Structures are given as C-alpha cells and as structure tokens.
C-alpha cells in the first residue's frame, strides 16, 4: 500500500515549529517574508464552496522617484482530472472545464490580472501510455478549439489574460500535434502560441510519441499587464531556455508542468527560483496534482513492472521573484489557486543591483556554443605532459 502523501513542507514545518524559529526557517528557505494578500470574501467563498486552496501574497519592490509601481496580480492554478480516464473525451474535458472555470472565477474575484494553467490542463497526462486513441482526440485548435472558446469568454468577462497550455492540433498545417501554450488576451483574442522546446525521453515521460520539439523559438507576448514568456515543463531543466525568454524581454515566465514526485520533486523548488535569480524575472511554476490511472498497463523500458499510473503529481505550485525570494507552495495533494501581487519594477531593480546582464559575457558563450554544437568538437581538457 502506498504511503500517505503529506500536504506540503510548509504544513510540516508549521506542525513542528512556531514563533521565531518558524520565521527564521522560512526566511532561510524562502528569502524575505511576504505580506499576505487580502482576499475578497467573494473569492474566499468560491474557494470554500469549491473545496480548493486559495492563498495570496504581496511581492513589493522599493519605491522609485521616477517610476510608479507596476503592479500586476498573477494567479497559478493547479488542478486534478475530474472524471475517470475511461469516460469519453468530451465528458473528461468538460468536467475539467467546469472545475477550472470555477477556480478562474475565484482568481478573478481575488483581483487576478494574469492566470496561468498547468501543462495539458484539459486532459489526463496520458502520454506515458504511448497509445494514440483516444488521447490524441484531446488535441484541438489554438484558435477555434472548445478550450480557447471557453476561456476567451472568461477573459473578456474579467478583463484578464489567460495562459492555456493544451495539446494542440495544428489544423492549418497537416494536423500535426504539438504541446502548446495559448496566450489569450483580455480582449478574448488569441495573441499567439508558444510550444514546448524540450521533449523528455525519461522513463514514463517519453513524449516524442505524440509531439516533437518546437520550431517557434522563444516568443514573448506583450499583454496589457506585462511581457510574458512560457517555458513548458521539461524546458525548466535547461537554463538557456529560461535565459532566451528573458533576453527576448519577458518580465514573467510561466512554467506550466506535469511532473511526479519520484522523478523531480527535489528539483522542483530550485529550478524556477534559480531562473528568476539568474534572469531578473518573475517565474511561476505550476504543477498538476493527483494520481491518474489508465485502462491499460504500460511499461517504460526502465525495468519496472507494468503499471497503470506513473505516480503522484505533487502540485506545489509557487511564484519566485528576481531577488531570489519566493512564495510558499500550494498543497501537494489539493487543488488550488495561488495569487501574488507583483511589482514588475523589481526586475530592473535587481538588474541594477546584481549586474548579471552586464557581466554574462554572451559574446564569449555564443562563440563557444557554436563550436560545441559541431559534432567534431572535443572538450578543451588540459592534461599534465
């Protein structure tokens, strides 16, 4: 029998520590403390009625003499699937739409301006099975698909920007499937799309059965509330991927993900936070929650017995700031909405304080990376003669 999942590190700490000791440990783990955000009673009631977590934090910056604060409220939503994977595609998708729609309503009631959803949020993460049908039927058009139509109405209703990662069917070009994030403007129109740049081939996460690496590069989207990049899931393991979104002008980089505890959990709290520090941006790590069971057993070429699930998606979504501080995580076991009010002025303030953009030596690395990309390159190792 599988061991019970803990709610989260923060819960365990609060059970064992209190007062100054708890404050000091949290400072060491998370950086400077944030004030909690006042959540409206309407939003609180939606969360209570819907039985999902709702937390909020204020991430401020120093006051400047020549620039007013640039405040934006960002929300990260983590959810589980809500119908058995044996139900029809439409039943599964519609159940998730209904659930996440209620969570978006709560985020909007809490004042969110930009809402990010998790990777492939409209479906079970079925890519482990390597079966085509019915899972490829979840793929839909970026522009005319039911998910974009559903979210566009919410975007207009609440004057919000929504980051919607879906399984894309590129109906304009040979019906090819991609792992894609759709950026929906507050006007309800699609600003554009970003696709997954790095495809895992690790155990159950062998997703090249369904889609391949993006050819779109690192687009950044100018929205009413700031410049946004989307580094989908496995791309967080590649520092250059984060860097290119930042170099293209992103102020907030979302990392919609689907990852399980046995594979990546010790890395989760490090990677998006380190990217925020290294690139002077805000980062939003979003991971789904729950265990998803499939009708047929599958193996992964890793010596493990055949199985019908591939572990617990541990949630733990969080937001990190360019000064290295970060919010506490959402639960490892519950659905939830995390809100943070960010002052985007902090991006430039950290650039000025640390100077990484002045000292990163892109010219040197550009030359060397070009050399290393040549198959004939050999490492520059000096040995005693």
TrEMBL record:
Catalytic reactions on record: 3-(carbamoylamino)propanoate + H2O + 2 H(+) = beta-alanine + NH4(+) + CO2; 3-(carbamoylamino)-2-methylpropanoate + H2O + 2 H(+) = (R)-3-amino-2-methylpropanoate + NH4(+) + CO2
Pathway: Amino-acid biosynthesis; beta-alanine biosynthesis
Record-annotated membrane-spanning stretches: none
Protein origin, superkingdom: Eukaryota
EC number: 3.5.1.6
Key words of the record: Hydrolase
Keyword Transcription part of the UniProt annotation: no
InterPro entries, per the entry: Aliph_Amidase/BUP, C-N_Hydrolase, C-N_Hydrolase_sf
Identification of the protein by name: Beta-ureidopropionase
């Amino acid at each position: 029998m599988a061991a019970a999942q803990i709610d989260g590190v923060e819960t365990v700490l609060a059970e064992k520590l209190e007062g100054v000791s708890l404050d000091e440990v949290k400072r060491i783990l998370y950086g400077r403390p944030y004030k909690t955000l006042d959540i409206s009673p309407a939003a609180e009631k939606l969360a209570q009625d819907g039985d999902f977590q709702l937390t909020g934090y204020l991430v401020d910056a120093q006051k400047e003499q020549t620039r007013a604060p640039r405040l934006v409220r960002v929300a990260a939503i983590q959810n589980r699937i809500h119908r058995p994977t044996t139900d029809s595609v439409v039943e599964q998708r519609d159940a998730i739409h209904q659930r996440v729609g209620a969570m978006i309503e709560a985020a909007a009631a809490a004042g969110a301006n930009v809402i990010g959803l998790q990777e492939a949020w409209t479906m079970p993460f079925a890519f482990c099975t390597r079966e085509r049908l019915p899972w490829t039927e979840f793929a839909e058009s970026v522009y005319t698909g039911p998910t974009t139509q559903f979210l566009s109405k919410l975007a207009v209703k609440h004057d919000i920007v929504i980051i919607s990662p879906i399984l894309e069917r590129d109906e304009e070009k040979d019906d090819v499937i991609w792992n894609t994030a759709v950026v929906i403007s507050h006007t309800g129109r699609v600003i554009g799309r970003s696709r997954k740049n790095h495809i895992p081939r690790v155990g159950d996460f062998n997703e090249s059965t369904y889609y391949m690496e993006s050819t779109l590069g690192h687009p950044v989207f100018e929205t009413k509330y700031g410049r946004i990049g989307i580094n989908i899931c496995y791309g967080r393991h590649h520092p250059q991927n984060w860097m290119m979104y930042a170099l293209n002008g992103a102020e907030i980089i979302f990392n919609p993900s689907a990852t399980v505890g046995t594979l990546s959990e010790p890395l989760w709290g490090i990677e998006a936070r380190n990217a925020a520090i290294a690139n002077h941006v805000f980062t939003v790590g979003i991971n789904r929650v729950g265990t998803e069971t499939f009708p047929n057993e599958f193996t992964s070429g890793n010596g493990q017995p055949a199985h019908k699930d591939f572990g617990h998606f541990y949630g733990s979504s969080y937001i990190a700031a360019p000064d290295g501080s970060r919010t506490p995580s959402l639960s490892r076991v519950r659905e939830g909405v995390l809100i943070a009010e960010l002052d985007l002025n902090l991006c430039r303030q950290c650039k000025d304080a640390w100077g990484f953009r002045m000292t990163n030596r892109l010219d040197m690395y550009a030359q060397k990376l070009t050399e290393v990309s040549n198959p004939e390159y050999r490492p520059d190792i000096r040995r005693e003669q």
